[in-house]
Amino acid sequence: MQQGVMLLDADLRVVIFNDQMGKLLQAPKGAIEFGVSATRMAAQIPILGQSQQADNNQESWLTHLLTRSTLLRQEISVSGRIVSLTSTPVDDGGWLIGCDDISALASIKKDLADQNRRFDAALANMPHGLCMFDAEKKLLLCNAAYCRLYELPESLTRPGTPLWQILDYRQTAGNAPAQREAYFDVVVEAALKGSAASENVVLMDGRVIKITHNPMDNGGYVATHEDVTESVRAEEQIKHMAGHDPLTGLPNRTLLRDKLEKELSFRSGGKRSALLCLDLDHFKEANDTLGHAVGDLLLKAVTDRLKNCLAEGDSIARLGGDEFVIFHGDARTNETASALAQRLVDAIGEMFDIEGQPVHIGVSIGIAIAPDDGDTADSVLRNADTALYKAKSNGRSTYCFFEPAMDAGIQQRRKLEIDLRQAIAGNQFEIYYQPQVNAGTEEIVGFEALLRWHHPERGLVSPAEFIPLAEETGLIVPLGEWVLRRACKDAANWPGDVRVAVNLSPLQFRSPSLTHIVISALADSGLSAFRLELEITESVLLTDSETALATLHHIRGLGVRIAMDDFGTGYSSLSYLRLFPFDKIKIDQSFIRELGESKDCAAIVKAVVDLGSSLGITTTAEGVETTNQLDRVREHGCTEIQGYFFGKPLPLSHVEKLLLERSPPSPADHRDEPVRP
Ligand SMILES: Nc1nc2c(ncn2[C@@H]2O[C@@H]3COP(=O)(O)O[C@H]4[C@@H](O)[C@H](n5cnc6c(=O)[nH]c(N)nc65)O[C@@H]4COP(=O)(O)O[C@H]3[C@H]2O)c(=O)[nH]1
């Protein structure tokens, strides 16, 4: 748009003007004419006579012209438009007046001012520190968070403050000059290079600041400073948690594998190291009996003892449950590893005192040597685990080095263990019943429940193979309970007072709920207590006999009969007869087998039967297969007989048939021929 122009002479009369002047000021016709005085003009164009905000002044255009001879710039509002009026004194005492419509410019200026206000507010309120330096490394601006972060005095936050002054201040404010803060190295380095940089730096007071530095086009730079102390700590915590066991604070499997991989790949000069896999013996029982809180304390106490056994260069991890692993960094000879293993066995074998409760456990250890037994973390771990398996089957609380020959047998056993776990869930078990007859009348007085496993691939698996494994793994506890409940239910349908005998494993006696399980099996099935007989071996009384005896008394008090199985095979069968009033003694089949050949066996059977009769205890001869054996056990006075001669263990359906006939079984013609299972 065209500019309005007007020239006034020294008497302030119009000398030159253009039409645009009148239009912009909305002057009435004739108000701006050649020769018209400024006073008259101001009278006809009111805005010229009114006071206006101008430069830092508040006076009217006319007053200024009449009283001063300096440049005057005014922005005047004319019917909603903004008009800029510039009055410039000229040499002869006159004035050159220019006039522009600056409405559009004024709106831009206003937007700009608004935007600046918003920008200031954002800067002041942003949580991160921000600073901007020019190419000479002089401060252009910084926000409040930046000042707070570095505790800068106000004097150092003014525009123009050189960077070095801030650096000097931070170096000397409470910090020894020699301890130059890393922050400044990052900033200065990036500033000198003119490059972008983002880095976490640790201040002298421990705070971690993330500095992001970006160069600007004019050679300066802008940087944000964020206090990331909390998030860095949280990240470190999460990282720690991902690699450690929360209960004991020890490294976990993940961290162990990483460490092992590193150790094994950096091994130099034929260095040998040993990996020891540890598994606590009887931990599960302690945990089940004493509760998980005590179990946790026990694991912590175990961790302390294990740590105390370590030498420099050894490290320990917990894989979970009661499994630990120790890396023995320098096993030049097997002796150092076996000495360490022995120390560990001894330390864990000593009684623990957990909140006043004495707890006795042990540890079994498998050892593999790297590189002899493997040179990757997985192979060494696997082989140490195989050796551990062997140590456990050798009787626990011992250690064992890996040998390649172990692998096949143990893999097979491990497969069986996996199958056994699945078998419980998959209903692959069945109970067979073997008759027990009265030695005189040959009437069936009861049946012994004997477990059978129908393996989906291997067919029928003998209990001699899977019961020891179930005992080792603790699976005998749920399995034994299943047998007890099933046998009670089956027997409840048998006629008269035919009894059922169920084998109980020592492990079942460690469970505090055994008595309750017996009561509930009887209640659920409706079987009378006197028709249930529980068979135990002397091993039940070998460990913690007081608790076992108390449980036995409790169960016998219900009316359940208690039989001592495999009598004569242990060392203390006789002494246990004094400890508990057994209802029955089952003479082990090894004595019956040799009755004809060995005088000793005959003497033992006779002695046991006599003892039984004087104590009023039934004696059962086990494993009677021939007429000859039958005659002899009868001669000696055995009261009951069990063996293939009268029947092998049979499925339930056959038992029911046999009982229906209810007649004493007629011995076969070839009675003297042993009947093979
Ligand atoms: N050669 C020969 N053997 C005879 C004769 N009469 C009986 N037997 C066998 O002798 C074993 C007697 O059972 P056990 O001594 O309690 O010995 C049992 C018992 O200790 C254990 N077992 C079986 N079922 C269970 C169970 O449910 N729980 C527990 N804890 N153990 C069980 O497995 C062992 C072996 O059981 P089975 O193989 O069924 O073997 C049974 C039976 O089949 C005979 O005349 N000649």
UniProtKB/TrEMBL annotation:
<feature type="domain" description="GGDEF">
    <location>
        <begin position="271"/>
        <end position="404"/>
    </location>
</feature>
<dbReference type="Pfam" id="PF00990">
    <property type="entry name" value="GGDEF"/>
</dbReference>
<dbReference type="InterPro" id="IPR000160">
    <property type="entry name" value="GGDEF_dom"/>
</dbReference>
<dbReference type="InterPro" id="IPR043128">
    <property type="entry name" value="Rev_trsase/Diguanyl_cyclase"/>
</dbReference>
<feature type="domain" description="EAL">
    <location>
        <begin position="413"/>
        <end position="663"/>
    </location>
</feature>
<dbReference type="InterPro" id="IPR029787">
    <property type="entry name" value="Nucleotide_cyclase"/>
</dbReference>
<dbReference type="InterPro" id="IPR001633">
    <property type="entry name" value="EAL_dom"/>
</dbReference>
<dbReference type="Pfam" id="PF12860">
    <property type="entry name" value="PAS_7"/>
</dbReference>
<protein>
    <submittedName>
        <fullName>EAL domain-containing protein</fullName>
    </submittedName>
</protein>
<dbReference type="Pfam" id="PF00563">
    <property type="entry name" value="EAL"/>
</dbReference>
<dbReference type="InterPro" id="IPR035919">
    <property type="entry name" value="EAL_sf"/>
</dbReference>
<dbReference type="InterPro" id="IPR052155">
    <property type="entry name" value="Biofilm_reg_signaling"/>
</dbReference>
<dbReference type="InterPro" id="IPR035965">
    <property type="entry name" value="PAS-like_dom_sf"/>
</dbReference>
<keyword id="KW-0614">Plasmid</keyword>
